[in-house]
Amino acid sequence: MFVDKVQISIKAGDGGSGCCSFRREAFLPKGGPDGGDGGNGGNVIFQAAPGEQSLLDFVYNGHFEAEKGVNGKSKDMIGRKGRDVVIKVPPGTIIRNVETGEVLADIDSAEKSVVVARGGRGGKGNARFATSTNRAPRERELGEKVESMRVELELKMIADIGLVGFPNAGKSTILAGISNANPKIAPYPFTTLHPVIGVVQYDDFSTLLAADVPGLIDGAHRNVGLGHTFLRHIERTKMLVYVLDAASVDGRDPLEDLKTLKKELELYMEGLSSRAGIVVANKKDLPESAENIRNLKKHLPKGLKLITVSALTDPDLTELKTLIRTELEKRNIPHYFTPRCTPITEEDLAASVDPDEMD
Ligand SMILES: Nc1nc2c(ncn2[C@@H]2O[C@H](COP(=O)(O)OP(=O)(O)OP(=O)(O)O)[C@@H](O)[C@H]2O)c(=O)[nH]1
Ligand SMILES: [Mg+2]
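A: This is the predicted complex of the input protein with magnesium ion.
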């Protein structure tokens, strides 16, 4: 089961209370106040868990509470701070207050962590209230109480490119070809029921993330097919890859498909259809594709780049991989290309020492 929206409740820890106490020692009848402060309550922290792609766990475990601060003690002993609770969520999770709708945090990168609810302040012990006129104060503060809060987690996946297309066009076959992902591929529509992210790796060790989403059809905005709410997972992509069935295997015209896809994207979110894009005319191994590809070339909407491929007979899709990267770089689109390690250069090799020759 895939879950991309869920409600949970969180509560930061209450502050520990300050202590009221007086020093008692032999031969010291009137020791001063020595009640220590209470510790602060623990925070509720949301942290990105790279590689995680679903909020499913939260369906079964929907309540998180940080520890209360420890009360202060006599002999000026300060209470310990309550332990934080760290909630690990997939990168791309947005946290909203259910009551007010306010966005509390957006875990929009794989390294991010945010304190969403702060623990209550610890109360002061009576030692803090001593003054020159009142040397034996009985006053002390209670720890600050913190309300629990209902929050909604919404996952909008983080990926550099998003594959969009009609069902059966070959999106998942393409994702499997260009990335490490292993999505289900089958000759019937709506094989893909939830988004899948794959890591595309280049020879220089750079990587980017690609998202495959379910098929989109005419009327998706009216909930036809699987609807269009899954498009939230391509909202944050910087470039769209329109995958078309150039051979009209299902009897549709690929140029019309492209227009419909753009229309449905726009109905989901204004401006989405004018995002940078590559049009992949897939299934060029089938002879029926030739005429359609000619037509696509003639009427291709402005700003889009066309590439013809066969994900079936050329599963490596090297040309497409390169085009994706050059198009992102050409447009100066910041992307997540993150060299995991720097390739070794000739200079590095020359400067390195052979371990066998070391003393
Ligand atoms: N002949 C041919 N068949 C292809 C090609 N690419 C994909 N297919 C076939 O098309 C069918 C659908 O492929 P998928 O990758 O599952 O298509 P999809 O777009 O992910 O489909 P949904 O998940 O249902 O939206 C499968 O039977 C694939 O083997 C291609 O280049 N040529
Ligand atoms: Mg699919």
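The chain has two domains: 1-155, 161-330. Residues 1-155 form a domain with the Spo0b-associated Gtp-binding Protein; Chain: A, fold (CATH 2.70.210.12).
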